[in-house]
Amino acid sequence: MVKRSDMGNHRGTWSMRWFLSVGWILIWTWGCGTSAYSADEANQSRTCQTRGAQGDVLLISVTFDGAPQHVKGTFLDRSVWFFPIASGRYAGLLGIDLQDDPGTYHLLVHADYSDGPRRKSVCVTILKKDYPVQRLTLPKSMVELDQATLRRVRDEAQRVRQIFKHESPVRLWRGPFLEPVHGVISGRFGSRRIINGFPRSPHSGEDIAAPQGTPVVAMNSGVVRLTMNHFFTGNGVIIDHGLGLFSMYFHLSDIFVREGQRIAKGEPIGTVGATGRATGPHLHWGIRLNGARVDPYSLLAIAFEKT
Ligand SMILES: [Zn+2]
To answer: I need a surface site. Which of 75, 86, 272, 297 has the fewest CB within 10 A?
Structure first.
């Protein structure tokens, strides 16, 4: 015999399951509708006022009345964090990954108020960019890896991915951004690399060649999240600038900072070197913005007002 209280519990559990499954379907449908809408628009090749090329960073500004507690956006399944810049105005950095498909999409922005959320949609067009092809010849030992080295490379990549997963909700940077070292560009962001005759992943940073030992400075304020000696990237530093923005400095000869250290914009973090897979002294400068691989010089090109 089933006790009344058990039935109540059972019914309660079932109701909760029904509620959760309906909730799930609604969310799923809403998500699907959103992406289908984006794809349709992409097919129509309509362009929006807000547009940028693959690898670009865009400064997006939105207005919301009153005082929302929190403003956050979603673009192609990536977060876009917003921060107040003036009364009722909010800005956010949107990163277009160098391999995002060209087309027209929507950045959905949610503002949370005490009486519920309000939403806005910003139309964004991604334009195709033709990145150059770079052919490199490297020693076999740097390209054909043994099992132990492959394991090491995989573990190192996993460690770096973990760092990017944690998007700290506090903005530590203030515009504008700095070039970490002045020199000659020896490897362009986005170039399609052919190493020893075989196509590889596109280059996700800028290579700036400079004499060994030249100081490298932080492009903006932040917290040192990782210092490492990795097989490909050599001695490296990753700085978390908050709101999903990270900068990377690789192939350093010396590292001056430690993990967890607060760093100011323009503060030296190390020196140019040729550690890891490098053919000569240079800085590999990379940026991740909410998971997107973006061109560091695109960040420098942004005209900041009061950010
Ligand atoms: Zn590089």
So the answer is: 86
